[in-house]
Design a protein that fits this description.
mainly alpha; 3-stranded antiparallel beta sheet; 3 strands; globular
Length: 174
């Protein structure tokens, strides 16, 4: 089953809940990386402070699915969330309360916890799928969406996109 696409209001509810979690900055940053950059759980888990260079997040080869690297722009909100979460600390961005770096399953479990406590349906891939759908809904060319998500094939990117009522209306009455 594919992760559900979420509305802005549903994500607002998730962000509000993240702010009340035991480690709010960690949950907020994870959510931002998923919703705004479409990062995979593995990429979030492996993220290091050294990946942030200026206003870019450079995901190195081997830190994602497949062997490709990719670079994503960072907006002010994400940069501020990284600074608040890291508090000047260097190295792996996501560590558990015992100081052990999180793996992809731990990141996925954190998302599940956030969705459950927010009484929302979703998974660690809901942000990624919603981003892809929203980009296409705003007429972003599919090859650009492919690059953002880090897919090798357009057919993979197409599977992430859901059809929205606005897309249907634009196709019929443009």
């Amino acid at each position: 089953m594919q992760a559900p696409i979420k509305t802005d209001a549903e994500f607002a509810k998730l962000f509000q809940r993240a702010d009340r979690m035991r480690r709010p900055m960690q949950y907020r940053l994870m959510l931002l990386l998923s919703v705004k950059l479409g990062m995979r759980p593995k990429e979030i888990a492996l993220m290091e402070s050294s990946w942030v260079i200026g206003r870019e997040l450079r995901i190195p080869q081997g830190s994602s699915k497949g062997q490709a690297s990719r670079t994503l722009p960072l907006n002010d909100e994400i940069q501020a969330a990284i600074r608040l979460h890291m508090q000047g600390r260097q190295g792996r961005c996501f560590i558990n309360e015992k100081g052990v770096p999180m793996n992809a399953k731990a990141v996925s479990d954190a998302f599940q916890r956030l969705y459950l406590l927010s009484d929302e349906q979703g998974s660690c891939y809901s942000g990624r799928r919603t981003l892809a759908t929203n980009l296409v809904d705003r007429n972003t060319p599919l090859p650009v969406v492919q690059r953002v998500l880090g897919h090798a094939h357009l057919s993979t990117t197409a599977r992430y996109v859901s059809v929205t009522p606005r897309m249907i209306e634009a196709a019929l009455f443009a």
